[in-house]
Automatic annotation (TrEMBL):
<dbReference type="InterPro" id="IPR036291">
    <property type="entry name" value="NAD(P)-bd_dom_sf"/>
</dbReference>
<keyword id="KW-0560">Oxidoreductase</keyword>
<comment type="function">
    <text>Catalyzes the reduction of dTDP-6-deoxy-L-lyxo-4-hexulose to yield dTDP-L-rhamnose.</text>
</comment>
<dbReference type="InterPro" id="IPR005913">
    <property type="entry name" value="dTDP_dehydrorham_reduct"/>
</dbReference>
<dbReference type="GO" id="GO:0008831">
    <property type="term" value="F:dTDP-4-dehydrorhamnose reductase activity"/>
</dbReference>
<dbReference type="InterPro" id="IPR029903">
    <property type="entry name" value="RmlD-like-bd"/>
</dbReference>
<keyword id="KW-0521">NADP</keyword>
<dbReference type="Pfam" id="PF04321">
    <property type="entry name" value="RmlD_sub_bind"/>
</dbReference>
<protein>
    <recommendedName>
        <fullName>dTDP-4-dehydrorhamnose reductase</fullName>
        <ecNumber>1.1.1.133</ecNumber>
    </recommendedName>
</protein>
<feature type="domain" description="RmlD-like substrate binding">
    <location>
        <begin position="2"/>
        <end position="272"/>
    </location>
</feature>
<comment type="similarity">
    <text>Belongs to the dTDP-4-dehydrorhamnose reductase family.</text>
</comment>
<comment type="pathway">
    <text>Carbohydrate biosynthesis; dTDP-L-rhamnose biosynthesis.</text>
</comment>
Length: 293
């Protein structure tokens, strides 16, 4: 999802010479292959990750091989070749028990295996690339490519009269295309020596709940938001614990001369104007108009 949006952003930049490697092209758990791939590049952006949060609970070693050891391989290769590294991480490295937005230097304490595996990767970047490594934490990511919450809500709108969505988890919805633009901006600033290394928070500004995101998605898509009903997390028991509070602060962007990502509502409005979401919304409205009043 993010990788394809990132390539679309870079394709519009005539200065960029891009090598794009999928999982079939590069196994990031193979240090020799990683070193060979990194050589000759000025900047590496890591969008590879084990993202099956629930699956990581029963396969933490495998998740850590990708999210931890794989990232260490990338960081080591960048340290050896002089390349800068932009690594995409997650809010799940934080405990999720705060009441105010987490600063970039807030203490980490993951509540699930996925978060622990991602923290191993963050620590490798900080250790091996203290000045030329950039960890960008994101959260609640959605986009045109691949399964995600916004697309699921629109698909279900065409199938069900109403939906129950949790309102006791707080976070910041983030459009993958907007994050891709931010990564390009950060990478450009990094190569120009204008951005200090370290942790940045790449999430939409503002805050909401999954319930709030679902209702705003319906409203912007021309659907009846009253079809979304609030519930709490006890209604959806899953193997991995989810952080209750994933709101992140964005103060570090100023040090790179960049503005934070826009408000999550503005991102959502722009995203819903793209072809995939437009088609899903049209199908949902067509179904809704045919329901008895």
């Amino acid at each position: 999802m993010l990788g394809r949006d990132l390539l679309a952003e870079l394709a519009a930049d005539p200065r960029a010479e891009v090598t794009a490697l999928g999982r079939a092209d590069l196994d990031i758990t193979d240090p020799d292959a990683v070193l060979a791939a990194v050589q000759g590049h000025d900047l590496v952006v890591n969008c590879a990750a084990w993202t099956d949060v629930d699956g990581a609970e029963s396969a933490e070693e495998a998740a850590t091989a990708v999210n931890g050891a794989g990232v260490r391989n990338l960081a080591a290769a960048c340290a050896k070749t002089g390349a800068r590294l932009l690594h995409v991480s997650t809010d799940y490295v934080l405990p999720g028990d705060a009441t105010e937005p987490y600063a970039e230097d807030a203490p980490t304490s993951p509540v699930n295996a996925y978060g622990r595996s991602k923290l191993v990767g963050e620590q490798a970047v900080a250790e091996l690339l203290p000045e030329t490594g950039y960890t960008v934490r994101t959260a609640w990511l959605y986009g045109q490519h691949g399964p995600n919450f916004v697309a699921t809500m629109l698909k279900l709108a065409a199938q069900r009269d109403s939906l129950d969505v949790v309102e006791d988890q707080h976070g910041q919805p983030t459009w993958s295309s907007a994050l891709a633009r931010q990564l390009v901006a950060l990478g450009t600033a990094a190569l120009a020596g204008q951005a200090p290394g370290g942790v940045y928070h790449g999430t939409g500004s503002g805050r909401t709940t999954w319930f709030g995101l679902a209702r705003e998605t319906y409203r912007l898509a021309g659907l009846d938001p009253e079809r979304i009903r609030p519930t709490d997390s006890t209604a959806f028991v899953r193997p991995a614990v989810r952080p209750a509070f994933s709101v992140l602060a964005h103060g570090r962007w100023a040090q790179a001369g960049l503005a934070p990502l826009p408000d999550w509502r503005d991102q959502l409005a722009e995203a819903l104007g793209t072809p995939v979401f437009t088609e899903l919304a049209l199908a949902a409205r067509t179904t809704e108009s045919g329901r008895p009043q």
